[in-house]
């Protein structure tokens, strides 16, 4: 389904309730699979979380997790420690291009039995579950924090716990801290000293309810909407914490550069455009929050601001090569984008506030491409290809945009 977003002057000031964080929910689902007494409140309604839950509960011999990268990593670790379990886990064509060798080799260090069915180091996998006794391993920490989180989440169910040594500069640190804090919430003891993380075994745990905060990655698109709106525009978002586990909460500080303020009141936040952007050039290191890179880059495009975003090495192995995808789509407006393995620079100003034939944004089966470009309707009419892809993380995205006055039609 392709849609056209018609240009609007400003959004209507409304209250939006975003569902729970996908990152927190998927961790909670895995913890609940290992400790059945856990209850989950305000879980994500995303496709990824549904696929995760389905894979755990249906106990099929062949599991297809589609594009759900987090599910692939977490479930690989989960099934590896299930005695007498034999399962094949596969995904979409793109999923079979996303590396998983670092995690698989770490699990093999623990004694796991995992076989590659096609290309070495990539899904699909055949996993023969067994009881794992080893508890000391090392892992490269520079590629994906999800490999580390997958190991940490299962560690309390290993007979001797886990002592995990991290090699190299750790990427996406807040996501690892999120994992450890969620383990602490259910009563598991952990320790992170220098480059070593220890998770202690825990067989008996008290009943726990994990209340999931709303998703800051999804909130980022509303920050972009307010940034691209006239001064005085505001929106309210529900169920957010001032002391968040989510690394993407750094969006608060970054969007102050665009004249957007954030006010907490209870569990609500009010976003307001209070001033024009303070500068014409933005520099930001997104090592700890790479998922908001697309939102920020497109905001800079819409505000005619140059930028240099770094810490983006993980974007090459996401649902698509997000750096190349951003370059392709931003340059449709005539600008110049320079990308490296680690960075994206918007190097020429582009005035997109024009009445010309709508630009068609290709999404590359990536939910964040669709949602990151949608706020540009505050500046120009544009078309979004395969708009339904947003269901991967935020199924109600288009419905919620309609609530705040966005005008759209199917093509």
From TrEMBL:
Cross-referenced Pfam families: EPSP_synthase (PF00275)
Domain of life according to the entry: Bacteria
Residues binding phosphoenolpyruvate: 22, 69, 98, 146, 322, 368, 392
Pathway: Metabolic intermediate biosynthesis; chorismate biosynthesis; chorismate from D-erythrose 4-phosphate and phosphoenolpyruvate: step 6/7
Domain Enolpyruvate transferase: 58-401
Top class in the EC scheme: transferase
Subcellular location, principal: cytoplasm
Keyword annotations of the record: Amino-acid biosynthesis, Aromatic amino acid biosynthesis, Cytoplasm, Transferase
Active site positions: 291
Binding positions (3-phosphoshikimate): 22-23, 27, 144-146, 172, 291, 318
Keyword match Secreted: no
Reaction(s) this enzyme catalyzes, per UniProt: 3-phosphoshikimate + phosphoenolpyruvate = 5-O-(1-carboxyvinyl)-3-phosphoshikimate + phosphate
UniProt subcellular location: Cytoplasm
EC numbers for this chain: 2.5.1.19
Main function: Catalyzes the transfer of the enolpyruvyl moiety of phosphoenolpyruvate (PEP) to the 5-hydroxyl of shikimate-3-phosphate (S3P) to produce enolpyruvyl shikimate-3-phosphate and inorganic phosphate.
Subunit structure: Monomer.
Sequence similarity: Belongs to the EPSP synthase family.
Name of the protein in its database record: 3-phosphoshikimate 1-carboxyvinyltransferase
UniProt gene name: aroA
